[in-house]
TrEMBL record:
Its EC number is 7.1.1.8. Keywords: Cell membrane, Electron transport, Heme, Iron, Membrane, Metal-binding, Repeat, Respiratory chain, Translocase, Transmembrane, Transmembrane helix, Transport. It comes from the Bacteria. This is Cytochrome bc1 complex cytochrome c subunit. The cytochrome bc1 complex is composed of a cytochrome b (QcrB), the Rieske iron-sulfur protein (QcrA) and a diheme cytochrome c (QcrC) subunit. The keyword Transmembrane helix applies. It comes from Kribbella deserti. InterPro entries: bc1_cytC-su (IPR009152), Cyt_c-like_dom (IPR009056), Cyt_c-like_dom_sf (IPR036909), Cytochrome_c_Oxidase_Subunit (IPR050597). SUPFAM superfamilies: Cytochrome c.
Length: 282
């Protein structure tokens, strides 16, 4: 008789839907574990595509870049220890996109300055090369279009970009972004006609002798403002007359010597010749 109340209470506690609830909790636990442990098909496909892109970039690198930068992108030096081609480990995808996307690489010959020229690789090949170099070590990634889009820049942002440019860039690139000479055969190239993307990448990676303007030095908004200012300069007219390449006192002084003084010399010769004729007539 003592066991009858216990069995009664146990039967009262066991509801008819208890088994269904336990089953649902079990299915939920299995589904959660499966979601956590089994990789997503889309992620697997993305990883496979990225691996294929890296492999394509490795093959392109071996053919077009390894002769200077080394088979493993470790760089190379000449017989006296001077760097012929720098190491690309850790430069990031943005550096490759800039150098190859502007035609500077592959270089036709080594020298103090690698000039901009026609692009050799297709956009897909440049993307593959950038992916391969990025896989060698962490570095700045290729920025997305929102990072350098200045289509909606305000006048205030353009003005602010001009102040930043004059503070950080005019010493090399000239007050109007026209470029200028540097020591040892180097020069700062003109920024006119350069795409917004490549301007951003140049500030991010510091190609050749240019310093790196990381986000700690110039924020992403600072970079956009500088680009907006340079794009405004491209569309700016020269209300004073000839722009003379916007090279400042160099071109203005040359114009003054060749044209201004040339005209004065011509006038002096004409006056002298006229005076001689007048004297002969008398």
């Amino acid at each position: 008789m003592a066991s009858s109340p216990a069995r009664f209470l146990s039967a009262r506690r066991r509801h008819r839907s208890a088994g269904l609830v336990v089953l649902l909790f079990g299915l939920l636990a299995v589904g959660t574990a499966y979601t956590a442990l089994v990789p997503d098909n889309a992620a697997v496909a993305d990883d496979a595509a990225q691996s294929q892109k890296i492999e394509e970039g490795r093959k392109l690198f071996a053919v077009g870049c390894a002769s200077c930068h080394g088979l493993n992108a470790e760089g190379s030096t000449d017989g006296e220890g001077r760097i012929v081609a720098p190491s690309l480990i850790g430069v990031g995808a943005a550096a490759v996109d800039f150098q190859v996307g502007t035609g500077r690489m592959p270089a036709q010959q080594t020298g103090a300055q690698v000039p901009r020229k026609n692009v050799v690789y297709s956009p897909e090949e440049i993307e593959a090369l950038a992916a391969y170099v990025a896989s060698l070590g962490p570095g700045p990634a290729v920025p997305n279009s929102d990072a350098y889009d200045v289509s909606k820049a305000t006048d205030e942002q353009v003005t602010r970009g001009g102040a930043l440019f004059r503070t950080n860039c005019t010493a090399c690139h000239n007050f109007a972004g026209s470029g200028g000479a540097l020591p040892n055969g180097r020069y700062a190239p003109s920024l006119m006609g350069v795409s917004e993307k490549h301007m951003y990448e140049a500030m991010l990676t510091g190609p050749q002798q240019m310093p790196v303007f990381s986000d700690q030095v110039l924020t992403a908004q600072d970079k956009r403002d500088v680009i907006a200012y340079l794009k405004a300069l491209e569309n700016q007219q020269d209300p004073g007359g000839f722009g003379l390449g916007r090279l400042g006192p160099v071109s203005e002084g040359l114009w003054g010597w060749l044209v201004g003084i040339g005209i004065l010399v011509g006038v002096a010769v004409w006056i002298g010749a006229k005076g001689v004729r007048a004297k002969d007539e008398h």
